[in-house]
Amino acid sequence: MLRLTLLLLAAISLSAPQLSKAQTQQDNDAAWAALARSGHIALMRHALAPGTGDPTGFTLDDCATQRNLSAEGRAQARAIGERFRERGIAVSEVRASRWCRCLDTAELLGLGKVMPTPALNSFFRDRAVAERQTRELRALIDAWNGEGALVLVTHQVNITALTGVYPRSGEILVLAPEGDELELVGRLKN
Fold first, then answer.
1. Residue 26: its pLDDT value, please?
2. Residue 141 and residue 143: Cα distance in Å, rounded?
3. pTM assigned to the model
4. How are beta strands 172-178 and 40-45 bridged, if at all?
5. Mean of the pLDDT values across residues 35-41?
6. Per-residue pLDDT reduced to its tens digit, 100-159
7. How many CB atoms lie within 10 A of CB 140?
């Protein structure tokens, strides 16, 4: 009996990762399908940029003083843009934080003209502006006309303040505006 129980437990544990992978694929498919319909937001953390925050003395207008995308991050951004094109996602606007890693990510996606947007700027070093800036971001979303997909490239702190989710680099949260709420439709982990 013990042997049969152990075999059953082993079989269950071996099948669990496969179920998890299948569920992840279903979640990804649902998120991509939502983006293919008008009215959804792709809220993206910039692609891979090693480190945390920015070096001491960084300036917004000088990329050489900032934490920037790695070669892997640049390739990641291009690949994500290719997935949008493969799935025929119509993008109405692409907006990005004015930090170089966000602007570069947005440009490398190749989904349209990138609009630098202060409401998407990082408040990692100045949490005192987090609430005001999150309200500004929400107002930007509320003012969006809902056509196609709205692509917003920003930072972890901004995404977490708006949604409560801590995204990985290059991850996209697919959101649907529902009145005063933002419904999390899915997470695309790239």
1. 66
2. 5
3. 0.87
4. antiparallel
5. 94
6. 999 999 999 999 999 999 999 999 888 888 999 999 999 999 999 989 999 999 999 999
7. 17
Look at strands 40-45 and 149-154 and give their pairing.
Answer: parallel
- The alpha carbon of residue 82 and the mean position of all alpha carbons in its chain are separated, in whole angstroms, by 15
Structure tokens at 83: 């997935």
Between the CA of residue 100 and those of 53, 65, 133, what are the distances in Å? 12, 10, 19
CB 97 within 8 A of CB 154: yes
Cα 48 to Cα 12, 26, 112, distances in angstroms? 35, 25, 21
Give the count of alpha carbons within 13 A of 115, CB side only. Answer: 11
Angle (nearest 5°) at CA 173 between 190 and 33: 85
* Two tokens, residue 49: 């940029």
Length of the chain equals 190
Give me the DSSP letters along 25-69: HHHHHHHHHHHHSTTEEEEEE-S---SSS--TT-BTTBGGGS---
Cα 177 to Cα 28, 91, 112: the distances in Å are: 19, 16, 22
d(CA 168, CA 81) in angstroms, rounded, equals 17
Adjacent-strand bridge partners of 182: 177
Helices (H), the chain: 2-36, 71-86, 100-109, 130-143, 156-163
Residue 161 one-letter amino acid: A
